[in-house]
From TrEMBL:
Chaperone found in the keyword field: no
GO molecular function, one term: structural molecule activity
Subcellular location: Secreted; Bacterial flagellum
Residues of the Flagellin N-terminal domain: 8-141
InterPro entries, sorted: Flagellin, Flagellin_C, Flagellin_N
Organism, as annotated: Belnapia rosea
The protein's name in its UniProt record: Flagellin
Domain Flagellin C-terminal: 192-276
Major subcellular location class: secreted
Family, similarity comment: Belongs to the bacterial flagellin family.
Length: 277
């Protein structure tokens, strides 16, 4: 190919190829800066993008699981609060039962203590009935004895047990307003009504405390796992903006030089005109 040709300009072709390459790199760098991602879509790096999308799905699933665990925690904590109030009321009932067991009190005093016992048992019944969260009561609804909540993004569940508190706590002491001295004395024995109701209540307080601790631990673990997953995604697809900023300035300068080089190469055939003067 002749070096001096007005048909084929080799210098312009080289300059144009270099200019186009710089423009492509500049577009890619601007995309990384504007999106913040080194891999914004499958065109940038199909394999890395596929891995990132899968992990993003796992993060979304664990986020959803934590939302469900939050609801379960609310239910468990409301139930624990109810049992705490029941326990405090049973302690008061125990004190009243001690007075009812005293054979020296007058009939009028006994009536007053029986009235107090009635109010206390009514309170116990109310605490049990009011232990509702989002329409669910695991102390007063026999259909909620086995409760399953999704605990992670894989759909695995955690099961905690409800309790028939109306049967196993309230019903045991519900007749306290009619207790005679003998009834009250029997209720205070190790196997008596008050002692049994207190034991049942404390047992369930321990159970629901354990449930609450498990849910808290699972929520915290899911959060830690999601943080690690997010960090992994970032290492895989995030752009190094300091590096990209420096590269952008370099490419902008190269683009300006490429424009000048292409302009000079395009003017080369003009010099051939001087040969025909």
């Amino acid at each position: 190919m002749p070096l001096n040709s007005v048909i084929t300009n080799a210098g312009a072709q080289v300059a144009l190829a270099s200019f186009n390459k710089t423009a492509e790199e500049l577009t890619s760098t601007q995309k990384r800066i504007s999106t913040g991602y080194r891999v914004a879509d499958a065109k940038d790096d199909g394999a890395a993008f596929a891995v990132a999308e899968r992990v993003r799905g796992e993060v979304a699933a664990n986020t959803s699981a934590n939302e469900q665990l939050g609801g379960a925690k609310g239910l468990i904590d409301v139930t624990a609060a109810s049992l705490q109030n029941v326990s405090s009321t049973l302690q008061k009932l125990q004190s009243v039962a001690v007075k009812l067991a005293d054979g020296t009190i007058s009939s009028e005093q006994r009536t007053q203590y029986q009235s107090q016992a009635k109010e206390l048992t009514n309170n116990i019944q109310s605490f049990i009935k009011d232990a509702t969260y989002n329409g669910t009561n695991v102390l007063n609804d026999p259909m909620t004895l086995a409760n399953k909540v999704v605990r992670n993004g894989a759909g695995e569940t955690y099961t905690f047990s409800g309790y028939k508190a109306a049967t196993n706590i309230f019903n045991i002491v519900s007749g306290a307003n009619a207790w005679t001295r003998g009834d009250a004395s029997a209720a205070l024995t190790k196997t008596g009504a008050v002692s049994k109701a207190i034991t049942n209540t404390l047992s369930q307080m321990n159970n629901f405390g354990s449930y609450s601790n498990f849910v808290d631990s699972q929520i915290n673990y899911n959060k830690a796992k999601m943080d690690a997953q997010q960090s992994g995604i970032g290492a895989l697809v995030d752009a190094d903006l300091a590096k990209e900023s420096a590269k952008l300035q370099s490419l902008q300068i190269r683009q300006q030089l490429g424009t000048q080089a292409l302009s000079i190469a395009n003017q080369a055939p003009q010099t051939l005109l001087s040969l025909f003067r």
